[in-house]
Amino acid sequence: MRGLSFEIPNQYGRYFYDILEDININKYFWKSGDGEAYNIENNELGAAMFPHPYTYNGEDFYNQISAKDYYVIFADLKAFKEKTQVQAIATYEDFLISQCEIVLLIVDSSYVTIYVKDQYVTERLYRKAVQNGYENIAYITDHNDPRTALTLF
Q1: Most buried among 8, 53, 117, 118, using CB within 10 Å?
Q2: pLDDT tens profile 15-60
Q3: pLDDT tens digits, residue range 101-125?
Q4: What are the distances in angstroms from CA 58 to CA 27, 78, 82, 124, 129?
């Protein structure tokens, strides 16, 4: 089992938080890559959530994703246990040999793909996706994974 895929509603909310809240977000360093997500200000798109690729400590990342609503168009987030181990991850093979623990990709505002090294975390994320009512939830395995890259562009 490599991870999960599912669909979230194409609307603003706190989807990073909703997806990840059952795992210990604070224990990771979160690297934001290319993406497009905007804070919602006065019911309109506001400032970019992740204006530049950056590495957040767990607390800062938690505060960023839990404080207010946002709209995600594209997202590329990767979680590492050690800040010194943060690196670029382009393929599933890169992911396997790296210290990266979680890859979270969102495409076209709705399509979520999560790669996770810890099967227990994968199960928790699966249960959370079901609880949140997300659609087309499926495990990603060696046999059904269509991705060749773990980046957006």
Answers
A1: 8
A2: 999 999 999 999 999 999 988 999 999 999 999 999 888 999 999 9
A3: 999 999 999 999 999 999 999 999 9
A4: 6, 12, 11, 19, 21
Q: Which two tokens stand for residue 25?
A: 């977000």
DSSP states along the chain: --EEEEE--SS-B-HHHHHHTTS-GGGSEEEE-S-EEEEEETTEEEEESSSS-EEE-HHHHHHHHHSS-EEEEEEEEEEES-GGG-----SHHHHHHSSEEEEEEEETTTEEEEEES-HHHHHHHHHHHHHTT-EEEEEE-TTT---S-SS--
